[in-house]
Fold:
Amino acid sequence: MGNDVVDGVVLCRVGAARLAVACHEIDAIAPVEGKSWDVGLAFGVDGTGEGRALQWRGQLLKVDSVDVLATPGLAVLPVPTALRSVGDGVLTGFIEVLGALWPLVSPALLLAHLERRAE
Structure:
């Protein structure tokens, strides 16, 4: 990621899995309408229904739930060397929120990963 802090994150749940995306990397949060990429495929889980979508450059990334945490200056912990290649490098760090570590992902890399899995 290059940054050691992030100003605000979108916290998402996909089944029992959780992930975070930096607010500045998302264009919008929208209802799931039309074609969307199911983020659950990257986590080996099925979505629970309608969910919400993170919009990134016209593409919709479907997750089960979304919460926005607008806290500035959240520390980003680095990805351990052993995990850098997991999921095509989608993981860009970790943040600690609500007493738990949340994987921080890049929507661009996540979309590319889902597109490769669909081929």
Observations:
- The chain has one domain: 5-118.
- DSSP finds two helices and eleven strands in the chain.
- Residues 107-118 form the longest helix (12 residues).
- Residues 5-118 form a domain with the SH3 type barrels. fold (CATH 2.30.30.40).
